[in-house]
Records
---
Amino acid sequence: MATLDGADLLLFSSNDYLGLCDHPKVNEAAIDCVKRHGWGSGAARLLAGSMPPHMELERVMAQFLGKEAALLFNTGYAANTGLLAAMMGRGDMIFADKLSHASIIDGARQSGARLARFAHNDPQSLEALLQKAPARGRRLVVTEGVFSMDGDIPPLREIAAIARGYGAMLMVDDAHGFGVFGPEGRGTVHMAGIADEVDIHGVTLGKAAGSFGGMVVASRKIIDGLINFSRPFIYSTAMPPAAAAAALAAIDIIRGEEGEALRQTLFRNARKAGEVIKGAGYDTGSKTQILPVVVGESEEAAWLSARLWRGGIYAPAIRPPTVPQGTARIRLSITAGHTEADMEKLAAALAP
Ligand SMILES: Cc1ncc(COP(=O)(O)O)c(C=O)c1O
């Protein structure tokens, strides 16, 4: 529940998929950390800002996702821009899905590498671009685990095979898949069984992990390169250690029994919400916790959002340029905290 402009509204637009933003263990970890280390970090990581929770989080995430090393950035946005701009450069090529998140596009532009965009979730389109690409320079294919505005999961195995076949590295930004999918919530990369083929595994901690920050999980060589060359990492004050401590507590929950139970509740709620949307005469192609209701023009999306508001539901309209022209939508995001009664309220608000 949220209070907006004096109205009590049910939130259907939060990325707090497992309800960890306000979990007692996560809150306690942050409070304990403040008592031990204070609130602020006081400096950038390479000066005096590196504190035990930052380093422990990097160790735990590398181990959890089965890679040699991990690096913590202050946000997922900074992780994506900081990674791409540092790793890729003039003469290189980045192949990104057409619906890639703004942070991927901005990072690719900052890098100076040539950016080619393949049709959404379309391995053949990716292959056609790779075939035409010049032989020189490095190649990086970038996709997401769960697309943030469409809620769909790409054919990761096919994409990985094509990237490998054309000598390209592969990056998967699993901002919305980490904590939700795969064994122990390790994300869509592990669900697809391609962890060894993914060179760069991106994770944000502000969504299912209910905390804050972004991580790049990769080989020791890539992480060392970022420590030395990634500007958002080098030239920014380290995040408050309590945010890292909260993320550590969240990961502990995610990989344990409670995490599994929360995921099952989340999946059940998402299935139910999908039925509610279809029952109201709308179509949603998604099978994840992100359920877009695409209506077309911005005015229609604003109208539907206002109707939901009157029915006690908060789900803002998503309009171009965040999504392509003609695909304005309501993006319903489902959490483990939603109840049967919430679904009934959604059904009533959506009813024609
Ligand atoms: C796919 C994707 N990558 C990166 C980000 C950025 O993450 P953060 O909110 O931690 O900056 C987001 C969401 O905001 C996202 O949806």
---
Amino acid sequence: MKAYMLLALGLSGLGVAVAAHPGEAAHQEAGNILPADMERGARFELMKHFAQSLGVRCTYCHVGEEGQPLSTYDFASDAKPAKRRAREMMKLTHMLNQHPDLPGEDRSSLTDMSQNRVTCYTCHRGQLIPASQLPPPEPKPEG
Ligand code: HEC
Ligand code: HEC
């Protein structure tokens, strides 16, 4: 764990701790919940988790053109509703991981999905809209 100066954010009562960092204020002002100085590789892992869990590409949430270099994307923009929705989902997922009724070892991370009991994949399973109904029953084998 890095020796950040941690300051508690009243993130809709979630009590998420974020690192104090120059630029952090502006970053949070823009509505972001991930720390501004989150390591690039870790952030990319998290974003890949989002994309793969939902079965989409970066452009589903971010302004940018498929096939163009990522350097041309405007990742900071919140123009796409899916990005704003995903942020709410991050809060929900984090809240579930911190819920006292969730069975299993107590651990939760906003930034590292490999730490969590509940992740985007838990519900989404590669689909944008998670299934809520059982599939039709398999035909029973004869005899
Ligand atoms: C399901 C939606 C979703 C997908 C898919 C997604 N992202 Fe994100 N991304 C977000 C959200 C939400 C944030 C803002 C997180 C926050 O509030 O701190 C974000 C933030 C970022 C940022 C930081 C932007 C800033 O403010 O500086 C980068 C860079 C980024 N994503 C890259 C990617 C890349 C690369 C991919 C594809 C591999 C990707 N994202 C896929 C939702 C998504
Ligand atoms: C507890 C289950 C659950 C978890 C965990 C979860 N989601 Fe969802 N998510 C849902 C459900 C259910 C819907 C669809 C609601 C509806 O019917 O429109 C949804 C919808 C979405 C949508 C909107 C899709 C659209 O229509 O464009 C996005 C984006 C999304 N989730 C991102 C995420 C991300 C990113 C994570 C992980 C940080 C996540 N979700 C974790 C249950 C979950």
